[in-house]
Write a structure and sequence with these properties.
Oligomer: heterodimer
Number of strands of chain B: 13
Strand content of chain B: 25-35%
Low-confidence stretches of chain A: 271-282
Number of helices of chain B: 11
Number of strands of chain A: 0
Distance between the termini of chain B: 39 Å
Strand content of chain A: under 5%
Largest sheet of chain B: 6 strands, mixed
Number of helices of chain A: 12
Shape of chain A: elongated
Chain lengths: 282, 297
Amino acid sequence: MSYVTLRTLRDRRRSLIWWVVGILGYMLAIGAVYPIVAENQEQFEALLETYPEGLLAIMGVGDGESLFDPVGFIQAEALSWIVPLVFAIYGAVQGARAVAGEEEDGTIDLVMATPLTRSGLVWQKLSALGLAELVLGAAVFVGVALDGWLFEVEIPLGNVAAVSLMAVLLGVFFGSLALALGAFTGLRGLSIGVVTLVAAGSYLLNSLGGLVEGLESLKLLSPFYYYDASNPLRHGLDVQHTLVLAGSAVVFFGLALLAVRRRDLGVGGIRLPIPRLKRATG
Amino acid sequence: MSAPIRLSEVTKSYGKARGVVGLNLEVQSGEVFGYLGPNGAGKTTTIRMLVDLIRPQSGAVEVLGGSPGDPAIRRRIGYLPGEVEFYERMTGSDFLTYIGNLRGEGGAAVARELSERIDLDLSRRISDLSKGNRQKLGLVQALMHRPELAVLDEPTSGLDPLVQQEVYRLIDEIRAEGVTIFFSSHVLSEVERVADRVGIIREGRLVEVEKLQALRQKAVRTFEVVFEDAPDIAEFESLDGVRSASLHGNTLHCQVIGSIDELVKVVAGHTVRNLVSHGADLEELFLDYYRGEEGQK
């Protein structure tokens, strides 16, 4: 009985395929480049010495990670920046489209005139988002596993699954945030814009926060911190960090539910709970 | 059985002047109710409240004996939005299947039969459909589950006359099956053609609910008569219901409220070269009500 979920996934299947192709392609490219980097380790090390610490942090190199073992290389070149950003942005776009997008397109009228409940709509849209992110997560899993095979390095598949799951949860975090924002405002563009901004800002907070005295604790506000601070590819799943991301998504889902259940649909614009003044008549 | 639609003291405002104020309205079972008003009068606001897309700030909206917020109630309603939007990449039949699934009852057989009759090709992508065909698809999705109440927002607007006629025929058919129909329009002649009873809404307020017969009696019609020889204008001015009669050369211009019988009889006493009558004009009608309102103040 999840027709909305199925419909949404069918609508997205083409773009989803391209995202998967992109992720796999990128992971394989990294696999192809690694031997060159490993062979010329000394030159690269000399080059990296000259880089400022901040730049390395943004690139995902730091905290005692080495670029020159396969796990560190995949971590630095993919899992610490491009993968989480892809998942976050994909989540932001799909989350914003989920309810606000249908409102702006006008398609919500016919859908919601059926017996479908508003909670059902939000739940099914979130399910579609989660499933789409899972597909992307599967691409990361396959990509990393393939790289392990190419490098002839044992990377425990459990750890690969852990890092893929964290990416999925990060995507669902930003997706449900965008869904909630879209549910409150009915505005797709605003919700994509704001959530992308939040993603970029919290990414920088996480990667640079560690370098600035006093900002260290602010890292804890960034979802990217929970995504990879525990380095799941090396150490496996961190239950606490997993729960933080999943729990936040549940909270956003609840907020989206509240908003959509109470609001007028398809009228656009932010509805602030300000009592309306009576217009003077006569 | 209770009235399929009952609005009591419904107020809904958003934005500046859009919305409805203190709306009271009852639509009886099996009747075709024409909801007439100029664009922006509050027709779509009213209709979207009937399917719970928007909710009133005050007052009560009762549909089929319950709240439109209740999914079981919505299952019994067929709804055509004023500007109907579909998933462009789907085919017509995919879309109908989707909506049927959401309703929990296919209605596929009725949909196929309906589409065939109104000449709608369901195998085509929705993005390739003309405005008329999109409207047809909208109607099929509204009627395929054999609703007890059909709520149609400007079902013929923007359609060419041929398709309009098909829509009228469809409305006639479902009326014959006992479906209660609530439809909006800004065209009086259309409402005259289809509706049993008419509500006129203007600037968010319901100004009149009447039987069509009564409405017609109040309607203003304009006549232009060209005589062989110029008649005496006084002959026409004194007639019951005639107002603003004027003579230009051999041509008489006048407006008539209600029965035109007297006018026709007097005109017939002369040699007439030509006679043109403009049907009751909605704008005129509104103007009339508006004047009435102003007069009372």
